[in-house]
Amino acid sequence: MDNNKFIKYLSWIATAMSIMMYVSYIPQIMDNLSGSKGNPIQPLVAAINCSLWVVYGLCKKPRDIPLATANFPGIIFGIVTFLTAI
Questions:
Q1: Pick from 77, 79, 61, 63: which is nearest to 18 by CA?
Q2: How many CB atoms are located within 10 Å of the residue 5 CB?
Q3: Nearest to residue 20, comparing CAs of 80, 74, 63, 56?
Q4: What angle do CA 10, 55, 22 make, to 5 degrees?
Q5: What is the pTM assigned to this prediction?
Q6: pLDDT averaged per 10 residues in sequence order, the chain, 86 residues
C-alpha cells in the first residue's frame, strides 16, 4: 500500500475514533441531567479546542475535511455537556 493511501485510511480511522470519543460524553450528559453533575471545565475546554481545529481544518489550503469532521462533534457534545454540568 502506498503512503498516500495509508494516510487517507489512517485519517478516516482517526476521524471515527475522535467522533466516538466525543459521543462518549452522552453518559456524562445523562448523569448531569439526573442531578449527578460532573465537572464542567473539561468539556468546555474540549469544545473550545475542537472549535479551533474545525476552523483550522476548513481554512487551510487544501482543506482538511477529516480533521474538521473529527472535531465537529466535540463542539456540540462539549457545549451540551458543559451546559448540563453547570
A1: 77
A2: 9
A3: 74
A4: 55
A5: 0.85
A6: 88 89 94 96 96 97 92 96 96
What does the alpha-carbon distance between residue 71 and residue 50 come to, in Å, rounded to a whole number?
5
The C-alpha cell 460532573 sits at 38
**70 Cβ contact list (under 8 Å, min separation 6):** 14, 15, 18, 19, 53
Give the C-alpha distances (Å, rounded to integers) separating 10 from 14, 38, 67.
6, 33, 11
Which amino acid is residue 39, in one-letter code?
Answer: N
Strand, helix or coil for residue 36: coil
Separation between Cα atoms, residue 27 and residue 78, nearest integer Å: 12
